[in-house]
Amino acid sequence: MIILIVWSNLFLVPPEVTEELPDSTSIEQAFETEFDPVRFDESEARPTSITPADTTISISQEPEKTITVETEKAIYMLSSRGGTVTQIILKDYLKYDSLRVSLISIPEDPEWASYGGLTLGYADNMPEFNNLNFKVDGGDLYLSEGEPTGSVTFTYYNADGAEIIKTYNFNYESFLFDLGISLKMPRKLDMGQGVTIGWFAPLESTEINIDDDKNKLGGFFSMGGDFDYFDDFDDGKLRNIVTGPTDWIATRTKYFTIAVMAKTDPAQEAIVVGDQTSIVDIEGETKQWSRFGVGMTYNSPPEELSLDFSIYAGPLDYYGLQKIDGDLSPLVEMGWKPFKPFSIAILWVFTWLYSFIPNYGFVIIVFSILMKLVFWPLSIKSAKSMHNMKKLQPMLQELKAKYKDEPAKIQKETMKLYKEQGVNPFGSCLPMLVQLPIFWALYSVLGNTIALRGADFIFWINDLSRPDPSGQWIPFGVGILPIIMGVSMFIQQKITITDPKQKMMVYFMPLIFTFLFSRWSSGLVLYWTMFNIMGIFEQLFVKQKMDAEKTA
Q1: CATH classification of 2-49+64-332, choosing from 3.40.50.720, 2.60.40.1180, 3.40.50.300, 2.70.98.90?
Q2: Which residues touch 296 (CB under 8 Å, ≥6 apart)?
Q3: Which among 294, 442, 514, 530 could bridge 486 via Cys, Cβ 3.0 to 4.6 Å?
Q4: 104 near 47, Cβ under 8 Å?
Q5: Beta strand residue intervals within 207-361, DSSP E
Q6: Rounded distance, CA 89 to CA 101, Å?
């Protein structure tokens, strides 16, 4: 199990072209604490417009106009250039630098990624109008309970009589917003073969460790309820088109996602594109990064076409995504399919416990106690088996000495002794095997659940989803909590292991596990530590009980 977990976190890093992280400081500073519409400066709150590498595209002479929409959940930046979304800032979620989470990064290249979100085209081909300024109907919106809805419309006409109307509708209390698209003469807009609504603007890393986000990136889609994705590159590039009734498309990082869902008819194709590059992290190290774009295509469009979509831009909240029409919950990673039911059950228990224990550290402690109670019968049986094995050691040594030159005879007599004494030599392993699905599911929940992101416990543990931060100040990067876990494991091993041949295991296993757990979430380490401590008292209880029975 441990080998599988470690293997799943390994990756290959091909050589990449280095580019700096997008400079979004000005965006984040504008929304660092409380948003103030009066002092808000649009020029500081959106990414710099990037002209595509293909300079043959003509650009409207009219100045680009930026529209700001603020709801209870987020702040959206819309541009007249193509009528696209250029930034989304989540008001209730912070990055490692205490600035609000901004989701979008708009690079200079590749060309498909340089226009913003919710472009129109055919597959990843971007017609000229995506780089032109649309006519804007509506201005900045600051929604409230008294004014919970609002809309902005972008319109484009060309000389051939073709028309595009994009109408955005926002709701004060939701991470969702709607987009209605009306097209006339799409063949005159270079979309005669098909119309693709695309979210090709790459997502931005939000975590202090870029690898946390990078390992979750990809292009995702759902066809007829079947969830699939692409995240593998060929020579640093990715371009895949899949035919089928496409209900939604999405990209994601570790904790956040943007998904586009068809409200009317499903599309006929899904496209996933991507490329690999390198970025410089907060510590100045060059890290591999992947950029993904997704789209859904309506083939052979008629002369007039109307399409409606819902867009979700927000946290990967399993139960919240499950309630959305189309069910986006598959985007939340819940571990391997056989363990997914356990992960969902654990998440439900955590959510229920948190409703009256508002600290996830204490929730984990209570959960570990509950698990110990659930496995109590098996644990007691295991403890008795180990205690009985300890009593058999002198007799086993006598057998080995008596039949030292007859291995087959030793094995036969050993099994006979086990049977006569009513001892199962594998009885102590059963509770551990039964708990493996719980452990793996817990590993997935603690590492991927948005509720645990930034969840405090006590003292120095300020994020249960990340490794113990005290490892930054202790040699070899091993934090205080993993050390406590290792000590508790050593004590437990010392009590239970009596075979002289396994003596080295008493010392090496706790040491190995201490270093291994130092890389995992402190919430998981807390769970295992509590389980070990309760196991120590359990062993002492059984020993005392069996000694009392012996003397009685």
Answers
A1: 2.70.98.90
A2: 196, 197, 198, 221, 246, 248, 249, 260, 262, 266, 267, 269, 270, 271
A3: 514
A4: yes
A5: 219-223, 226-230, 237-252, 256-262, 267-280, 286-299, 304-315
A6: 6
Tell me the C-alpha distance between 94 and 91, whole Å: 8
| Whether the Cβ atoms of residue 361 and residue 457 lie closer than 8 Å to each other | yes
pLDDT tens-digit profile of 468-480? 888 788 877 788 9
pLDDT band at 396 (very low <50, low <70, confident <90, very high): confident
DSSP codes joined into one string, 230-249: E---BTTEEEEEEEEEEEEE
Q: Residue 488 to residues 63, 109, 374, 491: CA-CA distances in angstroms?
A: 66, 53, 21, 5
pLDDT digits (tens, 9 = 90+) for 512-545: 888 888 888 899 999 999 988 988 887 787 777 7
141-142 and 66-70 as β-strands: parallel, antiparallel, unpaired?
parallel
| Nearest C-alpha neighbor of 110 from the set 324, 308, 279, 292 | 292
Q: Residues 214, 288: contact at Cβ < 8 Å? A: yes
- What is the H or E stretch that residue 385 is in? helix 376-402
Cβ density class 99-122: b for 16+ within 10 Å, e for less? bbbbbbbbbeebbbbbbbbbbbbb
Instruction: Map 412-468 to HEC letters.
Output: HHHHHHHHHHCCCCCCCCHHHHHHHHHHHHHHHHHHHCHHHCCCCCCCCCCCCCCCC
Query: At 472, which amino acid appears?
Result: Q
Q: Which residues, in sequence order, are bridge partners of residue 487? A: none
Is the CB of residue 270 less than 8 Å from the CB of residue 246?
yes
231: exposed, middle or buried (Cβ count in 10 Å: 0-12, 13-18, 19+): middle
**Nearest Cα to 184, choosing from 111, 129, 250?**
129
Give the whole-angstrom CA distance, residue 457 versus residue 222.
37
Question: pLDDT value at position 97?
Answer: 82
> How far from each other are the two terminal CA atoms of the chain, in whole angstroms?
43
Q: Three-state SS for 59? A: coil
pLDDT score, position 170: 97
Give the model confidence (pLDDT) of 54-88 as tens digits: 333 334 456 889 999 999 999 999 999 999 999 99
Q: Where is pLDDT greater, at 82 or 49? A: 82
Q: How many helices (H) and strands (E) does the chain have?
A: 13, 18
Three-state DSSP at 347 gives: helix
Q: Which two tokens stand for residue 203?
A: 């997502």
Asked if the model's pLDDT at residue 360 lies above 60, the reply is yes
Distance CA 176, CA 469 (A): 35
- Residues near 279 by beta carbon (within 8 Å), at least 6 away in sequence: 18, 19, 20, 21, 205, 210, 286, 287, 289
Can you give the residue ranges of every domain in the chain? Answer: 2-49+64-332, 360-551
* Angstrom distances, CA of residue 434 to CA of 8, 79, 366, 427: 22, 55, 20, 12
- This prediction has a pTM of 0.81
